[in-house]
Amino acid sequence: MRILHIIPQFPYFGGDTIIGGYSTSVLGLARAQAEAGDQVTILGQVRDPAGRGQVRDGLEVVSILETLDAGTIRFGLEFIRQASRWAGDHSSKFDVVHNHSGFPEYFLASSRVRSATKLPSLHTLYCPIPRRGGRFNRPIVRGLLRRSARSMDRLLAMSRNVADSMHNWGLDEVAVIPPPVDLERFKDGPGRVEARKELGIDSDEFVVLFVGNATEQKNLSGVLDAFAILLERVPSSRLVMTTELPRTSGNARLQALRDQMARLDIEDRVIQRGIVDTMPGLMRACDVLVAPFKDSYGPSDYFMVVLEAMATGRPTVVSDVGGMSEVISNERGCLVDPTSVQSIAEGLLRFAVEEEFRRSVGDAARTFTEQTFLPGTIALKHRAVYEEIAA
Fold first, then answer.
1. Could you write out the three-class secondary structure of 183-210?
2. Domains present along the chain, CATH in parentheses
3. What global pTM score does this model have?
């Protein structure tokens, strides 16, 4: 089958390096489909030259809107125009169009692409739609976007929580297909000692990993406060932060975090990294991942970094927001209140002091990902939907 995936922003840097939950999901799905023999193209904004062109046999990435800043109204309007024009010009090369977004505003783009291509089309939404607030909940805009969404041949959601929010917003018959996780790339195995040595971490130190950015939403400030509490009980703890700080946060925000580390006197126990292409190694080097994000209205409703840590066999301390309770249970992780530093610290502390519990939770997490997020299985579920709407 010839598949066109359309996604507004696709921060792909080539190889395995990509930023963002739903862009990770799209790349994983496209790769699984290409491996199954489909011809796959991803269309979206790609800023890095290494992220364009042929990724592997059967998979190509095409970039548009490279000079515009995403997240603006101008970008949204221009994306509608350019995506629909490109898709219309190349419609004879595809059998189905699969649109992806985190926000409902892009239902309008999907509808325009469908009109331009006359191809079977579907849209997957990755973040829940809030009941209040946002342009998409203004009556006139909401009506327009709902009509656009209903023009799709099928609507999909990343999680049950997202599907429920779409239903509450006025959209029916939403199917749930979870994202794929690269279970071969993210798995426990050799390399832990080498990764720790490269980071300057001793073998007996307890390592906490944070992956995200410095925005308020990702709650890095709460992580620092919780880590300071953990250090009082487990002085051998280390915190590794791998973030995209220059891309997402202003100087004032970054300085505030540096001041916080100095005030807590934890600078010598914190290791900072930027965008990395060695995430599986970092996962193996750590003992627990912490992701106390405040909501899932920007990140994908299933935090992809959590799924990757689970696939590596690592326990996770995760905020009880969005659809994360569909993934995390007491047997395979720890749900915490992201507004409570003490709650985050207690989740970390239990994994720090109970090594056998840490191991059993990690094993259960790996088993769950194998049963739920296998790329080949996820690709087959999408194939069934494509064939149904194409018929």
1. CCCCCCCCCHHHHHHHHCCCCCCEEEEE
2. 2-180+374-390 (3.40.50.2000), 192-372 (3.40.50.2000)
3. 0.94
